[in-house]
């Protein structure tokens, strides 16, 4: 594939462009690509893409673990479908991107791939609306049925119910209404995350107080919930959107209570340089090694425990954390338990 002045048109393309020869050497890049990964054009062009950028699939496997995909042998294949990859940047961090590629061919075989890259934080593929509706319809039906039934009971038998019974029914109605509200917010967040329209309202957030609020709320649904807290007395606050961070923490605590032993939860916080880490740890069956790379995928639900829910919570949570220039990661030891860790910057992030 030609390089130099013949490739000057790449600078006119709005996306990051990476051209890779069949032998995996990088043939050309544009300025957007160098900005994306931090390497200069001189460092990239001519280097082995596998060694320089270490591209990996969403499940963590190397793109070239089994060589070039056999579909490239077919002359009818002209494009590669959009997929999520991670690329190693100049500072050693991994950058998640959406990749599409055009296949460049000569009469005998394919010569190179011309790849278009877009950061995951900027754009995500538009979801199938019917798939989202199907995933959420059952989850919405349950709390709405509860609200309708308990409200009818209150209206019809108000004078016959004791005050404590009325309070219990109203408390359950309030709880189910909040559950519906959370699901509606999740649906809105899906659209905002995928189109880059998520707007954060940052302020100083006391994470220790927020963690206690979240755990107290879940005790209504999980009466056996027992949580150990481990935070230093001078644990710092962070600059973040409190509603979004509460949404993330609520999802992590709910997952731990749902898929593990709710009586053995632990939430801890540590400071690491200019960042803080909040870890939600549970004791239970853990997440099988083959499932761990997939738990942040849209609609994915683990097979263990009670697999309820939409399969969107962790996917949304990771998006919300990344919008704060943070990270959401998971680790697990089968038979012992799992840890979900949120890392957030202490000060205002560029994402705002």
Describe this structure in words.
The protein has about 350 residues and is of the alpha+beta class. The longest helix is centred in the middle third of the chain and has 33 residues, at about 165-195. It folds into 3 domains: about 5-120, PAS domain (Beta-Lactamase), CATH 3.30.450.20; about 125-200, Orthogonal Bundle (Helix Hairpins); about 200-350, Heat Shock Protein 90. It has helices at about 30-35, 40-45, 50, 130-155, 165-195, 205-220, 240-260, 315-325; strands spanning about 15-20, 25-30, 55, 80-90, 95-105, 110-120, 205, 225-230, 240, 265-270, 275-280, 325-335, 335-345. A 6-stranded antiparallel β-sheet has the order 2-1-6-5-4-3. A 5-stranded mixed β-sheet has the order 8-10-11-13-12.
Question: Secondary-structure blueprint of this entry?
Answer:
Layout: E1 16-21, E2 26-29, H1 31-37, H2 41-44, H3 49-52, E3 56-57, E4 79-88, E5 94-105, E6 110-119, H4 129-157, H5 163-195, E7 203-205, H6 207-218, E8 227-230, E9 238-240, H7 242-259, E10 265-272, E11 275-281, H8 313-323, E12 327-333, E13 337-345
Helix pairs in contact: 4-5, 5-8, 6-7, 7-8
């Amino acid at each position: 594939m030609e390089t130099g002045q013949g490739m000057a048109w790449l600078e006119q393309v709005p996306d990051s462009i990476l051209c890779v020869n069949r032998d995996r050497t990088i043939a050309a890049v544009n300025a957007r690509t160098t900005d994306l990964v931090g390497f200069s054009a001189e460092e990239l062009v001519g280097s082995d893409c596998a060694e320089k950028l270490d591209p990996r699939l969403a499940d963590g496997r190397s793109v070239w673990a089994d060589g070039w995909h056999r579909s490239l042998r077919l002359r009818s294949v002209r494009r590669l479908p959009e997929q999520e990859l991670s690329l190693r940047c100049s500072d050693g961090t991994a950058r998640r991107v959406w990749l599409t590629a055009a296949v460049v061919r000569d009469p005998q075989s394919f010569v190179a791939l011309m790849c278009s890259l877009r950061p995951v934080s900027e754009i995500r593929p538009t979801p199938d609306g019917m798939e989202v509706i199907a995933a959420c319809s059952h989850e919405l039906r349950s709390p709405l049925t509860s609200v309708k039934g308990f409200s009818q009971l209150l209206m019809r038998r108000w004078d016959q119910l004791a005050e404590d019974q009325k309070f219990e029914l109203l408390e359950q109605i309030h709880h189910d209404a909040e559950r519906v509200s959370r699901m509606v917010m999740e649906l809105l967040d899906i659209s905002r995350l995928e189109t880059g329209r998520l707007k954060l309202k940052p302020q100083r957030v006391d994470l220790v107080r927020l963690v206690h609020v979240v755990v107290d709320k879940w005790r209504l649904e999980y009466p056996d919930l027992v949580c150990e807290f481990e935070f230093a007395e001078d644990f710092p606050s962070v600059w973040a959107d409190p509603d979004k961070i509460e949404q993330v923490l609520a999802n992590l605590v709910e997952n731990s209570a749902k898929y593990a032993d709710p009586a053995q939860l632990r939430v801890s916080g540590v400071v690491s340089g200019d960042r803080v880490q909040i870890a939600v740890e549970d004791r239970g069956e853990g997440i099988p090694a083959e499932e761990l790379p997939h738990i942040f995928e849209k609609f994915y639900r683990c097979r263990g425990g009670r697999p309820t829910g939409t399969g969107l919570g962790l996917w949304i949570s990771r998006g919300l954390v990344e919008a704060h220039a943070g990270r959401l990661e998971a680790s697990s030891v089968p038979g012992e338990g799992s840890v979900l860790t949120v890392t957030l910057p202490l000060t205002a992030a560029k994402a705002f």
